[in-house]
Amino acid sequence: MVIFTTNFGDIEIELDTTTAPVTRKNFLQYCEDGFYQGTIFHRVIKGFMIQGGGFTAKMKEKPTRESIVNEANRGLKNTLGTIAMARTDAPHSASAQFFINTADNAFLDHFSTTNEGWGYCAFGQVTAGLEVIKQIEKVKTGMVAGHDDVPYEPIVIEQVTIKE
């Protein structure tokens, strides 16, 4: 289990231990390294998702390790409260950024091994703090430093706790 302590409250996430092992290991390594501490939820779209894990409050992108293989084809779905890896248009480009689904987003699930069909790898479930996520969804957003849907008030991951 991973707990994100944010300036809006705590979000507890239980990671899937078998379905997406590469993704889980990658995410936990970023957590253990303290990478997420001080990053923000930099993209918030009500009724869709909240995305974080890559930018500081000044919208400076943090350098990451190499990208990982996309394990979206292993069966987990992008449903309300799941955490998934963010990526570019390239299917195997996820590194540190993640998002939490604030709705059932089946269109993000794997359906083929084409660029359009790979989907986004879900690898865990929010077990506490869904009300915090819903509160984050309500913040005012706009364009900041060339990025859309950025909260005007930074939503900061202040601490990351890993519980066995």
**Element order, helices and strands?**
EEHEEEEEHEEE
Q: Estimate percent helicity.
A: 10-25%
Number of helices: 2
Radius of gyration: 14 Å
Could you tell me the CATH topology label. Cyclophilin
- Measured between the Cα atoms of the first and last residue, the distance is 6 Å
By CATH reckoning, the class would read Mainly Beta
Number of domains: 1
Strand order of the largest sheet: 3-4-6-5-7-2-1-10
What low-confidence regions span 5 or more consecutive residues with pLDDT below 50?
Answer: none
- Total strand segments: 10
Going by CATH, what is the homologous superfamily?
Cyclophilin-like
Shape: globular
Mean pLDDT: 97
β-sheet strand percentage:
25-35%
CATH architecture: Beta Barrel
EC number: 5.2.1.8
Pfam family, one: Pro_isomerase
Catalytic activity: [protein]-peptidylproline (omega=180) = [protein]-peptidylproline (omega=0)
Protein name: Peptidyl-prolyl cis-trans isomerase
Structure description:
With 164 residues, this protein is mainly beta. It contains two helices and ten strands. 12% of the residues lie in helices and 35% in strands. The chain has an eight-stranded antiparallel sheet. The chain has a two-stranded antiparallel ribbon with strand order 8-9. One of its GO terms (molecular function) is peptidyl-prolyl cis-trans isomerase activity. This is Peptidyl-prolyl cis-trans isomerase. Its EC number is 5.2.1.8. PPIases accelerate the folding of proteins. It catalyzes the cis-trans isomerization of proline imidic peptide bonds in oligopeptides.
